[in-house]
Amino acid sequence: MRPGRWWGFGGFAAATAAVVMAVVALPGSRPGGFDPVSATVALLALAVSVFSVQMAVRASRWQHRDVTAAAAHLLVDVLDEANTAHRHLLGDAGTEITVRFLLRPASAHNAAGAATGSDLSQVVDYYETLSPRRMVIAGAPGAGKTFLALELVRRLLRRRGPGDPVPVRLSAASLDTGQETATAVETWLLHHLQQVYGLPAESARALVAARMVTPVIDGLDELDRAERPGYASRAGQVLRAVNAYQDVSGAGAVVLTCRSTTLQALAGVHLWVRDAATVEIVPVTAAQAGRYLAGRAALPGRWAPVLARLRADPDGPLAEALSTPWQLTLAADVYEWRDPLADGFSRDPAELTGAGLDTPEAIRDHLLGLLVPAAVARLRPPGDVGPERVRRWLSELARHLNANLEAMPSLGGRVLSGTDIVPHELWPLAGRHRVRIAVAAACATLWSGLYALVVAVTLSAGGEVSLSRHPWLLVIPPVMVFLVWDGWRVVWHRPKDVNRRPLMTRAGRRRFAGQVGRTAGAGLVIGVCCGIFLEYAAGRGFAAGLAAGLGAGLPAGLALGFFLEPPVPRVRRPWEVLRTDVVLLLGSAACIGVTLGVALWLADGLALGGVMFVVSWLLVVPATGNLALRYVAFLLCTRRWNRRWLPWRLGRFLRWGYDAGLLRTAGIAYQFRHRELQDHLVRSP
Fold it and tell me: InterPro entries recorded for this chain (predicted)?
C-alpha cells in the first residue's frame, strides 16, 4: 500500500472509531471512570491531525518534484563547491599549469567522436563530442587527474543549458560495493545527493531517474593497496558498477579518474570502462616547469640554479620530479612562502640542486618533508602546537587509512575507507569494541543513577513508591536496558540535520510558519483532549486536564512541525555534520524535557516535575545522540596515554589542516591533499 493511502486509512479508522464510540458508549458516562466523550473528541482530533500532517508531508514531497527546478538548485551548490575546491588546489598563487592529454585507444569499446588529444582549455569541447559521454582520465601519480576533472565540472556547469545534466564529483571510496551491481551507481548517487547536498529523497530520486546528474568519480586507484588490483578488487567492483549504469540510449554518462598503472592492471583481467574515451595526461616538460616557476616567483633570480638545471638536463632527476603538476606546485608553495614578520624567504630553491637530491624519489620525499613545517609556519595550528606534534597526529590518521587499505576490514557491513576521514565515523581507529563498550558503560551508569534519583524524589514527595500512583516507574528499567542494547547494536549512526536555509526567504518563512502552525495546532488539540480524558478519568477534573494537555501537546506539536520541515539543497562541509547533529539533539531533548516536566509538575507537584525535566534531558540526550556520544568516547580513547594519540579538538584540527592546504574535502569527508602525502607520513612518521 502506498504511504499516502496509509495516512488516509489511519485518519479514516480514527474517525470511524470516534463515531462508533459516540453512538455506542455515550450513555452512562460518569466522572472518575471511562469518559467516552473525551475519548470521542480525542479520536476526532487525531483524525484531523493525521490529515494535517499527511498534507504537510505531501506538500514537502511535491515541493521538489520539478526536475528542472531541483537541477537548478543543485547547480548552485555544486558550482560553489567546485570553485572552493579549485581555489584550494591552486593555493594563494592562483596560477594554473597547462595540462595536455592524449587519447589512449583501447582494443574495443571506445567512445565515438574522440579526438587524438587536447588540453585543459578545450576539455569541455572534447568531452561534449563523445558519444556516449563517458571519459576516463588517466595519468601518473600527481599528474593532475583530479584538477582536470574539477575543471571539467566547473566549465560544464558554466555552459549548462536548462535540460543538461549537472556533473557531481564523488569519491570512489564512498561507493558501497556491497550493493547490487546493476543499481549500485544509482543508489550511490541517491545517497550522495541527500547526504552532501541535502536534497529530499523524492527530488534526488527524480534527478537520478531522469539522468540529470552525471557522476564524476575521482580516485579509483585509491581503493586497493595492491599495485595490480584484480577482477575481485574494489576497483574492479566499481568498474563493473559503472558499466552497468545505463540510460535510455545505452551507456550512461560518467567521468572517472585513475592512475594509468591501475587501468593497465584491470585491463589485464579484461576489465575496463565500456564505451569510454580513455585520455592520458602528458607529463609537464622541463621547459613548461621552468616557465611556471619563473612566472610564479616573486624574485625569479632566486630560481636561477633550478632553471639552469632544468635547461641543462631536461630528462634528469629534477626535471622528472617536477614533471607532475602536484610536485611542481608543491615546490613553488614551499620555496615561495615568506614569513610576514621577516624580510626574506624561509628557504632557498637552490636546495633542489644539492648533491643529496640525485633521484626523483629523493626530491619527492624532500618536498613532502617540508610541507608540514611550511603549513605550520604559514598558518598557526590550534593550540599553537609545533610541526612535530602536527606531523604525529597526521601520521596517526595516515596509518589508520593505510591499514584499512591493506587489510580492507569490514565493520557493520561496511568496508572501512582507506582515504576518507569522516570525524564521526573515525571511532574504529581506537579499536573495534573499545569505544562502543565505553558508551554502553557510561549510559548504563548514568541511567541507573538517574533512576535512583527519581525514586528518591518520589519517596520524599509522596511518602511511598506506589506503582498504581506512579506506573511509569515500572517502565523506565526495561527502557534503559533497551536503549543500552540499541546503542551497542547500531554500528553506524547516521547524522541528523538542522535546516536553516528555508528561513532565508519570505516564501520559505511563510511555508515554515504554516507547517509549524498546522502541526502545533494538531499537537495542541491531541494533547488537550488526551489530557482532559486522562485527568477526568482519574478524578482530578477538567482544569487539570486542560493544563496538562496544554503543557504536553504544544511543545510536542512544535517539535513535530520543526522536524517535518523538508530539507533544501545545500552543501554540507565535514565540520557541519557533528555541529548540526548536536543542535538537533539538544532541541529534541528540550521539547521532550518540557513536555514531561510540565505534565508531571501538574500531576504530582513542582519538585517531581523539575526533576523529570532534568532527568529527561540526561536520558534523551544519550539515547538519541549516540553519534555525538560515540565521538566523545572516541576522543577519550585517543589520549596521550594511549598508543594512538589524537588532538582533543579533532574537528578544529582537521579544519585547520584543510585551511593550511594539507587536507581536502570530498563531500562530508576529509582526505589528504594527495595520496603521496598520506604514504609519506606512514613511511616517515
Answer: NACHT_NTPase, P-loop_NTPase
What residue ranges in 226-322 does DSSP mark as E strands? Answer: 246-247, 250-251, 254-259, 277-281
- Using the predicted structure, report yes or no on whether residue 185 has a pLDDT greater than 70: yes
Per-residue pLDDT, 308 = 94
Of 137, 67, 170, 135, nearest in space to 282 by CA: 137
Residues in the chain: 685
Q: What would the mean pLDDT of 91-118 be, rounded to a whole number? A: 79
Going from N- to C-terminal start, the domains of the chain cover 93-281, 308-378, 398-431+648-683, 435-633
First vs last C-alpha separation in the chain: 58
Burial profile 552-570: b = 16 or more Cβ within 10 angstroms, e = fewer = bbbbbbbbbbbbbbbbbbb
Given pLDDT bands bounded at 50, 70 and 90, which one contains residue 201?
confident
For the cut 90, the answer to whether the pLDDT of residue 35 exceeds it is no
Q: How many CB atoms lie within 10 A of CB 395?
A: 18
At 554 the pLDDT is 56
Residues 6+ apart with CB under 8 A from 223: 172, 173, 229, 233, 234, 235, 238, 418
β-bridge partners, 117 = 102
Q: Is the peptide bond before 132 cis (omega within 30 degrees of 0)?
A: yes
Strand-pair partners of 682: none
**CATH no., domain 93-281:** 3.40.50
**Sign, CA torsion 44/48/51/54:** negative
All cell numbers assigned to 85: 575546491
Q: Which of 314, 323, 317 is nearest to 283 (CA)?
A: 323
Q: Reduce the DSSP state of residue 672 to 3 states and report it.
A: strand
What is the pTM (predicted TM-score) of this model? 0.73
Cα 646 to Cα 630: distance, rounded to the nearest angstrom: 15
Residue position matching grid coordinates 540529470: 212
Gap between the Cα atoms of 41 and 39, Å rounded:
6
CA distances, 579 to each of 85, 495, 584, 631 (Å)? 22, 10, 9, 12
Per-residue pLDDT for 507 more than 70?
A: no
Q: What is the pLDDT of residues 441-457, one digit of tens each?
A: 888 887 788 778 777 76
Q: What rounded mean pLDDT belongs to the chain?
A: 77
Buried b (16+ CB within 10 A) or exposed e, 163-177: eebbbbbbbbbbbeb
Q: Is the pLDDT of residue 309 over 70?
A: yes
